[in-house]
Amino acid sequence: MTREEKTTIIAELSEKLKDNNYFYIADASGLTVAEINDFRRKCFEKGIEYRVYKNTLIQKALETLDTDYAPFNDTVLKGASGILFAGENGNTPAKVIKEFRKSGNSAKPILKGASIDTDLFIGDEHLDTLSKLKSKAELIGEVIGLLQSPAKNVVSALQSGSQTLAGLLKTLSEREV
């Protein structure tokens, strides 16, 4: 690979990393070609892009970003590395990895590290936590639901109270007759 090709790849990769708030670095080495193709297919179906890069190119692309990714250098960027670009949902790649592991009875791919809104997660032990993360839209929906709940309770109490009051008046008027 020539220097110009490397420079082009680094520029494209750093642009992708800037555009994506969520990316995962995984090790899928040791999987057969059929298993890798199956994994790529599952990623494609969920809207995830999976690309394999050299560690030095990933490291140089990460250095161009504002966030400090130095913790990735010692542990994450060793051995084979592929990047999963998540798009809108930060938990989708973790779910795909877990689903792929269950379907193939394999411990691969291994999560080496992830960046979720510039928060770094290093190690495969974070896979369960990452798969349970809620998207921004889900969190906003929950907050709106919680804010609306007290208002709905007050309105329903007022409505039921008016029906109770109307029933009470009707009963009293019937008794007097």
TL;DR?
Keywords: Ribonucleoprotein, Ribosomal protein, RNA-binding, rRNA-binding. The protein has 2 domains: 3-133, Ribosomal protein L10, N-terminal RNA-binding domain (Alpha-Beta Plaits); 135-177.
For the CA atoms, what is the radius of gyration? Answer: 26 Å
The CATH architecture of the largest domain comes to: 2-Layer Sandwich
CATH topology of the largest domain: Alpha-Beta Plaits
Q: What helical percentage do the residues reach?
A: 55-70%
Low-confidence stretches: none
Q: Tell me the distance between the termini.
A: 101 Å
Question: Which secondary-structure class do the elements indicate?
Answer: alpha+beta
The helix count comes to 7
Secondary structure: number of strands: 5
Strand order of the largest sheet: 2-3-1-4-5
What count of structural domains? 2
Order of helices and strands: HEHEHHEHEEHH
Profile the largest sheet: 5 strands, antiparallel
Bin the strand percentage.
Answer: 15-25%
Mean pLDDT across the residues is 84
Oligomer: single chain
CATH class of the largest domain: Alpha Beta
